[in-house]
Amino acid sequence: MKFWRRKAEGMSPEQMDEAVMAIQAEIERRMSMGPVEREIAHQMRYGWATFDNVRQSLLILAREIDGLKK
Question: Which domain of life does the UniProt lineage start with (predicted)?
Answer without folding.
Answer: Bacteria
